[in-house]
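Quality-control log, excerpt.
Job 1 of 2 completed; input and output follow.
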Amino acid sequence: MDFSFLEHFDFNVVMLIILSLLIFIYLYSKYKDAYKALYILRLSILFLMILYIFNPVIKYSTDNYVNLKWAFFFDNSSSMKFHKSPSLSSINLGITEFLDKLRKKDISFTPYVFDSKISPSKGDLSGNGLSTNIGNIAKFLEQNKNELAGSVIISDGIPTEGVEPSKLFKNLGLQVHALGIGSKASLVDVFINSIEAPTVAIKNERINLSVEIQSIGQVNDEVSISLYDESRLIASKYVNLYGQGSNSIINFQFQSKSLGRQKYKVQVSSIADEVNILNNRQSFDLLILKEKYRVALFTGSPNKNTAVVKKTLKNNNRIEVDHYLKISPKKFSLPIKNFWGSAYDLILFENYPIEPLPQNFVRILAKKIISQQTGIMLISGPNQNNKSLQGLEPIFGIETIEEKNPENALSYWDFSDNFVESEDLPPLTKNFSISSFENSVREIAVFESGWTLLSRNIKKRIRSIIFTSPDLSKLYFYNDNLNVFSKIFSESINWLLRSGVSTENYFRMNRDFFQQGEAAHLSGTKTGTEDSSGFYVDVFREEAFVLSADFDVNTEKNIWETSFRAPSPGNYLYKIFSKNNKEMIQSTPFNVLDSQIEISQVYLNEKLLKELSNANNGSYFEWKDRENLLEEITQKGKREIKANMIIFKDSIALLSLVFVLFFSEWILRKKKGLL
């Protein structure tokens, strides 16, 4: 025991206290014996008050022997439900009996269950954990090793999450035993690992499909791989799977005779005792496009734009151009009857019409556009004005406005909605003064004065574009890094040609559904007609934003591609946008399921469990030999020397004593009539 003072004090104060005590003793000694009790009380109070002033500290230590507890960790992951022997019920019964025997041996222990995290055990194992993180046990033991006698891990030893456990269990300084559960032979499973196919294909051209089939466990079977167009069987092939896991690539070639979005399915036959058959099938879709796009180009009078427009169209080898050049009031370079008798994907008016078209011509043209779902574009020319558009306004969703003082001088302009970021665009002249009267019309570019330069419209799936300046060729020869001509003309053409397909889907996921945490891959075939600026994908769950990812170009495969980890289970929607104009070009749902990685790996990983126990002075036992483990578990303890300290000012007991003495003295004085 040690006695000291916390407070510093003055020697003069001490002498004054001693003198006061002597006087106090002398005066009280003169009273009769009846007042001795009062004397003792006041003397005690005075003594305690002096202690309070000096604030002494009493230090002492206690020496105890405490029992240490064993930590038991029971695997509660899903794989525990799929072992044939022992079953989950047998495991729970065996654990109960084992722990009862420990109690009879007076062994102190604490049971825990673990999957992705560690929790105190509340009863039997459920086997509902979605993953197994054995590394968390090592972290737990490292943090608590001074309070533990040792640990026992009861598991099949299959980690499906976290850091490799063998790296974390080295030299923990605590004994670790392992009890292995299950058979050393893995359960069997056959599944489609991936499908490689283009997302876009041409009608009647051969399509290459590659299917990767994998198996786990001991397999010796022949399985069939079938390709379906919706429910119609296209082709089947057979492959032999054998050995402890296998991997096979099966290739198909097929054709599509239909346009638009076509759905296909690949299915693998199941084998005996297969643990999971949900992964034996996978669907995918293809966007089937025309081999050629036909464009009807009408020119009222050749000008600087004519050669630029025609050259740009012919540079695309998937576009065929019929050029109807006006050579007289009633005659074109090609017979007009060819136009009315042919189906076109796009009608392009370039410096046409110069004079208002006859009502009958406009009426038949509108019927042709609607019946054939044809896109239409008008590029203003030097010979046109507002009157040239009479009758055509409803097709483009605009109306012409007669200005009192029209300005035909060069005017500055800019793109709307950050279509292109530029402060250095060439000034252009304006031929038409138009405004939109339909909500479906989108202004892409406007003059400083507010008049429309470029607008798009989609009405009843018919796409139209109008460009109101005759200076398109000026953009073609404009030297800058933004390639303004491409933004104005080339991308407009590509946007219009897409109207030939009712459902556009250039991108596809590699699977119908994913398990949580799996890599989800998105890819799209690079057709040469899509937005060249690139794309990005946003993922949503019930309209709440989840994540975003950019697409990259795979030059080897000539595709756009990106990937992200599947989020938590649920229904999701991915939306793909053009980086250029933020326009959404595709919206597709997908599903994320609860992880089933546990049931694809069901066997006893004896090697890992032995590594963990051997690295920490422990032993490994199989489940059937668990009685032998009891002999290895002994009660352990440690001496615990605890330092204690009593500080007078902080002692509730001593302060309570002062109060009691004061109260007792007051009662005594009242009885003696000394108040």
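Job 2 of 2 completed; input and output follow.
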Amino acid sequence: MRLLEIELTNWQPYKGAGKNARKVSLDGKNGEKNLIIYGQNTHGKTALWQAIRFAMFGRVQKRISGVNDNDWKPLVASETKDEPLLNVTAHEEGTYDFGVRIKFEHNDAKYELDRSYSKKSGITIPRRNSQMEQTFTIRNLDTGSYVQEKQKFVNDILPEELARFFMFDGERIREYRDLFRDTKDVHLRNYIEAILRFPVLTQGSEDFEKMERTAAGQISKHAKKHRKGEAAQIKLSETESNLEVENDILTDYEEEQENYTIELGRVNEWLKSEEEGKRLLDQQDGFQRDKEQAIEEIESIGKKMSKALPGAWRAIITNKIESRLERLEKEIERQKKQTQRQGEIKTELNHLNNRLHGRDCSACGTTLEKPSRKEEAEILEEKVELENEHEKLEKARLDPDPDFLYKRQKALTNIKYDMKLDMLISLEEDLLRWKNKKRVAVQNFDKASKNITKDQANKLAENIVKQRDLYSKIGIVKTRISDKIEVIQDLDDERDRFQDILGVGGGKKPTAYRKAEIKKQLLQELKNAWDSVTAVHRENQRKNVEETATDVFLKLSEKRDDYKKLNISENFQLSIINNKNKSDSASQGQWALVAYSILDALTTCSGIEFPMVIDPPGRSMDDVHFTNTLEYLLNSKKQVIIFPEGSELLPDVGDESYSHRCAATYQLSQNKKDSNITDIILRKSNLRSN
């Protein structure tokens, strides 16, 4: 989303409506999109900042440190001392309409969002929120059509709970700092996971789990109805007990693998700190990944071949199936002709009988003349021949039964079109290709491992040996895990066999029972796959945020040589790592840079396109860091709207340094006649139209 214009109607200190409504444009002639709005304290910067949030979500939070998240500004002036959203002077003059209209660009389309309030019918002077009614519309300016699900449309652009990361409140910089540093605060992870779109993935896992529980309940219900056989039940219990033991062993192996992997990570991290070791390690890592990928592909192909093999026999008897189908088709055609001929004979006999007795023709209804003695003899002779033919056909009968022939034809056709030999050949070719890739990867890995120079320290050699040992141990554990999975699979099959015995009808489970089991197994596999993908995505996003935030922090910090990186834990808690690889304490100003870095990283990695609105930007910063921050923000790809305090950035200085990167700069000035009104003055313009 890119803001193009903000129009204020009797909004807080901005009095005016219709042609006199106050406007701020952000649509630059050459694509300039940024905005700087100067103003002293109490001159309306915050009100303009809040107008954007109001347009999006329909409410404005009171700006008090530590205020409750549900404490909102009133719509109109009342007995309370809270500043209302409706301009006080307009209210006193008897004008009760106010609102905010914004124009913006989103997904290559332009929209106009209008959110306003007016007094309800029958109300003379509104004094409470309940006496006001809202009008909310979103119009596509390209098509003229209106968006129906308006708030959903807005929330898809930016959910309200994430607005704090895009509409940065510099007055509350300490709260941002504490949020990123407090290891006990569970809200931060929730915020960050929301902005990185993790809840969607988490909800998917929960949905799979819920459906799995439902299927398990169905299985339990069927099992109770159809269970029989004490001996089978005992065996089933023993098998399930063995399954539990084997699964526990599998868990131990997986924990052992995880421990080896963590230790390997520590060794790799040390080796990466050595220039030569890093080169060697990078090579090894690449070859190891190639090897692991090849192993995974080999295992996957093996599973596919195992599934395809049971049906491959069909391909061997293809010729026999086609020959049998041809005979069946001929027999079916013969039966059709026989049945057809019997019908024709009956029709002819009926016609001859009608002629013999002078009856009406069955075909046309015409009364037939009684034949002469000669004609009668010929008819009788023809009748005898037809009856003999019909008798022969009747004796032949339809053998085998036509229904049997059709069912046999259908079964053979299904077998014919379920051939898997070609698939097996293709899989075999893929298997050989990946085995070759694995062999090459192993050779390259071994070669890289031997390229250790004599100049390397004994500790490097020791760690490389340790690295090889850990890779070997991980390989052994992986084999054990694979073997154990096969044992568990065998036990699963054994359990299924006993469960079949306990089913109804000679060990055969009811169809509904089997469907429930298949559904549960499928849901388990889908959930496991989903969780695996989610875990990888979560870790990748954490690394992306960490790397992006580090890059921004080092650009902003004047003492960048003193720091190595920003570290973000699995729970998204933050620490500053100095060049000695130790956690470093920083000043309030440095933490302000950290907050900007994290916020910029989060908004970048989220994929959410929304302007970064900052009021004020330089709180707790010195001049150097403030300048660095402005330079970075105004040169970024994001649209940035800044409300600097008068002491932070003088208008003349700001215009000279930054106006060329902005669509426009504005000055807020208190109206000389009415202190409840703020005027908006255009200073520098690169707008399409002034």
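Post-run check on job 2. The longest helix spans residues 511-556.
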